[in-house]
Amino acid sequence: MSATPGPAPGAGRTHLRDGATPGLPDGPAELLGTLGRSWQWILASAVATLVPGIVVLVWPDTTLHVLAVLIGLYLLVTGAFRFVGVLGREEQGARLPELLLAVLYVLAGVLCLRHPLQTIAALSLIVGVVWLVSGMLTLFTAIASRDLPHRGVVLGAALLAVVAGIVVLALPAESARALTRLLGLWLVLLGLVEVAIALAWRAALRRSGMAGAPRRPAGTG
């Protein structure tokens, strides 16, 4: 009767490539992948989407004010960087245009910080012009191309863009508040969907008795 050979030295733990052990994350990439497949991470993503949406819905005017301040700070910082960049140029002929552009950025930033509501109105005017022009171009294309697929849908979308552009141009401040509320509503709805996905993922993991899953649900990134 032959004796069963004992385990070879060093064979008490199965090793994978580069000394990795099964059941443990193989480096930062696998660790992050395991974290991304957990339902807690999906729930945290949902909360990160819900909270800004609720803030935008509860304080729309404050949100607009903060947005205008951030734009003003961005313009000031950009102007400062451009001014320093001008000083580093050796070509004398290229300094003047860059210097004027830097001063323009700084002045625009100061105006944004001094008059935030006018900044939002200006942004709304830009959005309105973009919608109006794009809608008119799309409308012209739909009318000129009789063999265009789904021509009726394209015509309807073009008319909707034209009407939206006219409304925004006529009421820039009110349109900005309405767009802000729509953004907040969209974030809240998206966050609620992610919460439902996270809870469903947790239930699926509990039913399978697994601590993780090989594939994360679609639409949670």
From TrEMBL:
Region spans: Disordered: 1-20
Listed transmembrane segments: 41-60, 66-87, 99-117, 123-145, 152-171, 183-205
Keywords for the protein's UniProt record, in alphabetical order: Membrane, Transmembrane, Transmembrane helix
Pfam families named in the record: DUF308 (PF03729)
GO CC, any one term: plasma membrane
Signal peptide: none
Keyword Electron transport assigned: no
Keyword Transmembrane: yes
Name assigned to this protein: Uncharacterized membrane protein HdeD (DUF308 family)
The organism of origin for this protein: Streptomyces griseoloalbus
